[in-house]
Write a structure and sequence with these properties.
Layout: E1 7-10, H1 15-26, E2 31-35, H2 44-48, E3 57-58, E4 70-73, H3 77-83, E5 91-94, H4 101-110, E6 115-118, H5 124-139, E7 144-151, H6 161-173, H7 178-181, E8 182-184, E9 198-204, E10 210-218, E11 221-229, H8 233-246, E12 252-254, H9 256-259
Parallel strand pairs: 1-2, 1-4, 2-3, 4-5, 5-6, 6-12, 7-9, 8-9
Antiparallel strand pairs: 7-10, 10-11
This protein binds NADP nicotinamide-adenine-dinucleotide phosphate.
Residues 11-17, 36-38, 60, 74-76, 78-79, 82, 95-98, 119-122, 157, 161, 235 line the site of NADP nicotinamide-adenine-dinucleotide phosphate.
Length: 266
């Protein structure tokens, strides 16, 4: 496992990509490529607000990834599907959300030839919250679960990847499949809420980095679990930390909680 893996940032011109560039540099890792769809040759350090670092943004190509041990991707589902064939077994850390089943299949194929870590949320807090939510759902099996999230007004996918990951963790803890129990928004007249349903509600506005609330409602009480991200830096730092730990590992799928040492031995 390389101690200081060489990193390529994919989606380097984006809100997250810029933050990742700054975190890679702050972590003292060599940044060898900055890739973006509309690569305009701007210095990635300038984009990240840390001053020039001598790495210009380039369009996606296998050549652009040539010197990288690990690629950190925060782009779009289309961007990720364009990246996968270029990887050639390099380690991939991806935080891109809004993925369809076919995109997850591509990630699984990719894990046959290289180490792959995808996570809907790279913050330490949400990684722990996933576990807390599963535990609460198991301990309160009859309580109704509603997940509310809020994000900035530029976000494209809804509900957020984090909300879906929380829903998946809760459904799995109850032995359910999320697809059979998810309910996205409510309007008009309907039958009473079926038990086991998991409701999702997506709020959009302002510059909210990412808020998530999980309600577990039972007779005479409600439990509220939540997380508030106040800076994208928390996601970027988590992704860079994961990249450092993933590079050089055997092909396969890796989980963030295990990689960060956040799983409890129970
Ligand atoms: N897992 C987490 O912790 C976490 C946290 C926050 C956000 N996210 C997710 O990360 C993703 C990016 O979010 P963001 O807010 O940074 O988005 P953004 O500001 O829109 O940035 C997206 C970046 O991806 C690039 N890109 C898009 N399509 C591409 C393609 N086909 N080929 C190459 N590059 C492409 C864009 O390049 P150009 O600018 O050159 O067009 C841009 O640099 C979203 O899916 C978001 O939900 C995940």
């Amino acid at each position: 496992v390389p101690v200081n893996p060489r990193v390529a940032v994919y989606g380097a011109n984006g809100r997250m990509g810029r933050m990742v560039t700054a975190e890679v540099v702050a972590a003292g890792l060599p940044l060898v490529a900055a890739i973006s769809a509309r690569a305009d040759g701007r210095d990635a350090g300038d984009l990240a607000g840390i001053g020039p670092i001598g790495v210009v943004t380039r369009a996606p190509s296998a050549e652009a990834l040539e010197h990288a041990d690990v690629v950190i991707d925060f782009s779009s589902p289309q961007g990720l599907s364009q990246l996968i064939p270029l990887l050639g077994g390099r380690a991939l850390v991806s935080g891109t959300t809004g993925l369809a089943a076919a995109d997850f299949d591509r990630l699984a194929d990719c894990a046959n030839v290289g180490p792959v870590l995808w996570a809907a949320n790279f913050s330490t807090g949400v990684t722990v919250l996933l576990d807390l939510a599963a535990r609460a759902a198991r301990a309160l099996p009859a309580y109704d679960v509603e997940i509310v999230e809020m994000h900035h007004n530029q976000k494209r996918d809804a509900p957020s990847g984090t909300a879906l990951a929380l829903g998946r963790a809760i459904a799995a803890a109850r032995g359910h499949s999320l697809a059979d129990h998810a309910k996205h928004g409510r309007e008009g007249l309907s039958d009473p809420r079926p038990s086991g349903e998991i409701g999702f509600h997506a709020l959009r506005g302002g510059d909210v980095v990412g808020d998530h609330q999980i309600w577990l409602a039972g007779p005479g009480e409600r439990v509220l679990l939540g997380h508030v991200a106040t800076s994208r830096r928390t996601f970027a730092a988590g992704a860079v930390h994961a990249a450092r730990r993933l590079a050089g590992r055997a092909p396969g799928r890796y989980e963030l909680a295990a990689l960060l040492g956040l799983t409890e031995d129970r």
